[in-house]
Amino acid sequence: MRKNIMLVAKAATTAILLQELLHEGVDSNCDITICDSAVTAQAAFENGWFHLVVTELNLVAVNDGLALALFAKKRSSFTKTVVMSGLDMVTEEEVLGNLGVDAFLRKPFENKVAVALFKKLLRVREFPATMR
Q1: Residue 51 has pLDDT above 80, yes or no
Q2: Which of 3, 12, 6, 74 is nearest to 41 (CA)?
Q3: pLDDT of amino acid 73
Q4: CB within 8 Å of 89: residues ≥ 6 apart
């Protein structure tokens, strides 16, 4: 099953790294949409569904990445979301989970940790037929 994945990052280098990790470590047969803001990411949802959305916590404004993750979950509860941040967010990680975010990825991260997380989230078999 071909997966649709969205990467949202301020820095092009972050987006490129994540794209390489996904193609080389997770699934070379996936479609990846790269956005640099929550606004362009939300607009991309007009073109279809995403199995996985990976976003930074703070893009242009404070917590706009979180708002994007929650928007993605509202569009489809089947979309898996990962929020990344370099902030020390021990309690915030729990809060994000309570809000509906599937995972938190602390930056800087080890590549193998990110790959394992992405594989776990994409392995879920509950995606509806319209997302396959």
Answers
A1: yes
A2: 6
A3: 93
A4: 57, 96, 104, 106
* Residue spans of beta strands (DSSP E) within the chain: 3-8, 30-35, 52-56, 80-85, 103-106
Q: What pLDDT is attached to residue 45? A: 93
Dig out the tokens for 7 from the structure.
């990467």
- pLDDT value at position 89? 67
Contacts of 107 (CB under 8 A, 6+ apart): 84, 85, 86
Distance CA 17, CA 3 (A): 18
User: Mean of the per-residue pLDDT values for the chain?
Assistant: 89
Q: How far apart are CA 89 and CA 91, in angstroms?
A: 6
Q: Which amino acid is at 49?
A: W
Helix, strand, coil percentages for the chain (3-state, nearest 5): 45, 20, 35
Residue recorded with tokens 């996904």:
22
pLDDT band at 126 (very low <50, low <70, confident <90, very high): low
